[in-house]
Amino acid sequence: EVQLVESGGGLVQPGGSLRLSCAASGFTFSRYWMHWVRQAPGKGLVWVSRINSDGSSTNYADSVKGRFTISRDNAKNTLYLQMNSLRAEDTAVYYCARPEMATSGEWFFQHWGQGTLVTVSS
Amino acid sequence: DIQMTQSPSSLSASVGDRVTITCRASQSISTYLNWYQQKPGRAPKLLIYAASSLQSGVPSRFSGSGSGSDFTLTVSSLQPEDFATYYCQQTYSTLLTFGGGTKVEIK
Fold first, then answer.
1. CA–CA separation, A16 vs A6, rounded Å?
2. Cys staple from B61: which of A6, A7, B19, B76, with CB 3.0 to 4.6 Å?
C-alpha cells in the first residue's frame, strides 16, 4: 500500500525557516517524480514544487521560487521541502503527492499524504 | 502560466439532482485535465483523470468530458456523501495549476 506521511510543520515567525519531510513507503520511491501542493486555510489547492526521480531537476511556483527548495533522499525514501524567508501568506497545509501516468500519457495525482500545517505568524 | 477557471464557485443541490461543474483553461491543454473531490480536513481524492477516465473505485455517477480548453464534471444523481469541494487540475504544463474549486452544498 502506498503511504505518504508528511511531518515538520508548525508555528514559525515571519522570516523564519522550516523543513518539511514526506516519508514514502509501499512503492519504489526512486522511480517517481514527487510534488508538493499547499492549501491555505479555507482556500483552494496550489501546486508548489516538483522534483524528478533522481533529484537532478526541479520546478517551482513563482510564489515560492528563490525561497523554497525541494529535494529528496532516495536512500531514505524521503522527500523534503526547505522553506526559507517565510511569509504570512505561506501559512497552509502542505501535501506531498505522487503522480501516476495514464496509458495515454496524461498524468495525475492518485496518492496524497495527509498534510502538515505550517503557520507563519509572530 | 495556464489559468484554470471553474464555475460555479459554489452551488446548492438536493440528493438525486444532476450536477454539472465546468472548468475552462486559458489555453488548450488537450486532455491533461483531472478532477478531485475534497472533504473538510482530508486530502484531495482523485475522481477523473485524462478528462474522462474514471478512477478505479469511484462511483459511476461521476463522469468527465471535454478536451482542448473546456471541460465538465457531472454527477448524475447526487448522493449525501458527494457534498464536498471539487477541483480541476491541469498537468499539461510544467507549472501545474488547479481551478479555484466548486463547493457543493446541501439545498
1. 20
2. B76
